[in-house]
Structures are given as C-alpha cells and as structure tokens.
Amino acid sequence: MKFFVDSANIEEITKLKNLGLADGVTTNPSLILKAGRNFQSIAKDICELIEGPVSLEVSSSSIDQMRAEAEKLRVISENVVVKLPMTWNGLKVCRDLANSGIKVNMTLCFTANQAILAAKAGAEFVSPFVGRLDDTKIDGVGLIKEIRTIYDNYSFRTKILAASIRSLEHIKNCAIAGAEAVTAPPAILRELVSHPLTDKGLEIFLSDWEKSNQKI
Questions:
Q1: Catalytic residues
Q2: Which domain, by its residues, includes 197?
Q3: What's the CATH number where 73 sits?
C-alpha cells in the first residue's frame, strides 16, 4: 500500500518523506488555505520534493473553467495529478484529460456507482471519502470493499485512493480491503508506529540492559 500525505505543509511532508512514508501528496483548497502561502509557490515546492503523484485540485465547477485550471496545474510539474470533483462536469473534463494522457484524481466519491463512472471516464485515481461516510453512519471501509470487488470484476485500471482517513483503524482496514493507497494527515501517519506495549517492552529491555553493566 502507498501512503500519500494529505497536507500542504512542506515541513511535515519533508519529515514523512525522510521516513519513507510519502509516496505521494494530496492537497485541496482547504489545505492550501491552512498553509497560508501562495498556491503556485507551494505546489512547485511539493512537486520538487516528492517524486510520486501530487494531486492538485481545481477550484471551479464549470467545464470550461476546470479545463483552463487543469492546463495551468499540469504544467507545474510532470508528477501533477489533476484533482476533479465527482460531478458530470468533472467526469467530462476527466475524460478529456485522460484522452490527452493527463492523470486525474476524481475526488468526493461516496458511492460505488460514482467509482464506476470515474473508472469509465479514465481516472488514474478515485478518492472515496471513508471518514465522511462514517460520519453519516455509513460504512466507509465497506465502500472500499465494494469498489475493489467491482474494479477487479471488470479489470478497471483506476486506483483506489482512500481519503478522509481519521484513524489507524481506517488505514489498516483500507489495506485489508485492497485500496492501492491511502491519503492521511501527517499526525495519523506518524501514529502508525505507536503502541503502548512497544513502549513498555522497550522500557523493560533498556532497564535490564542497564542492570547487566554491559556495552555493545
């Protein structure tokens, strides 16, 4: 499974890259706002830092405006993936971009039917929002399982990029369900290593080694 960092914070992305936990990056207008920097500048910095896919999202809803913004995004770097909303207009632009060899991430996916449409339109990634579905009492990981089954049934090449990740359980369960990647905030990715029994075991080992009066 690939880990994408859901952030526009260069410092956080760099730390995770150095740990081998940044196979890609996803951004959205909210994350850009939070970063408090010029969009073009931060987008270029992220693309220079990360070799893998970097999803940059359009900020319009009309076909003509999305096309124009997609053209501006894709010239930032070769590893840019244009992020489009799961709407009829978004699907139309996705189809056009895919036919031109431009990779697309269809975002705000909440049903298996939407995921089918994304695959039919030629999307490189589809982003089901696991956490937001859970918020509405719908099983977000269950959606990942449904999409995985459908994509396997019909040999769709679109990759499942599980988004709106809120917990370590989400990451584990999305991996079990067969998502090719998850995109998660830096704080959650850093938590992957943590377990109280690990901490307790290390404490015991270090204490016993100190008592042995030995050196390596």
A1: 83
A2: 2-212
A3: 3.20.20.70
Q: How would DSSP label each residue in 155-196?
A: T--PEEEEBS--SHHHHHHHHHHT-SEEEE-HHHHHHTT--H
What is the distance between the alpha carbons of residues 85 and 57, in angstroms, rounded to a whole number?
8
Pairwise CA distance, residues 178 & 159, whole Å: 10
This prediction has a pTM of 0.94
DSSP-based three-state secondary structure for 145: helix
5/185 Cα distance (integer angstroms): 6
What is the identity of the amino acid at 98? A
How much is the mean pLDDT over the chain?
96
Residue pLDDT, tens place only, 141-195: 999 999 999 999 999 999 999 999 999 999 999 999 999 999 999 999 999 999 9
- The domain total for the chain is 1
